[in-house]
């Protein structure tokens, strides 16, 4: 299973719009072809480190759990 951490406001915006697009994806869209964009994912043992490094002090965030299709 893979995980993605984002700000809760970004997730709420995505739900309303029907599209999830991070700031990094928006910047990438301006610079590269759509096929080259990606969303950062982490393995279970990396989630705490990522949260501490990039989301420290931000109490409002959410973490998606993504499971590959069988």
What does this structure look like?
The chain has a 3-stranded antiparallel sheet. The protein is globular, with a radius of gyration of 13 Å. The termini are close together. The mean pLDDT is 78. It has 70 residues and is an alpha+beta fold. Helix content is 39%, strand content 20%.
Structure classification: alpha+beta
Unreliable residue runs: none
What does the overall shape look like? Answer: globular
Mean pLDDT: 78
Supply database-style keywords.
single chain; 70 residues; alpha+beta; 3-stranded antiparallel sheet; 3 strands; globular
Topology:
Blueprint: E1 2-7, H1 8-17, H2 23-31, E2 42-43, H3 47-54, E3 61-66
Antiparallel strand pairs: 1-2, 1-3
Offer a quick outline of the entry:
The protein has 70 residues and is α+β, with helices and mostly antiparallel strands.
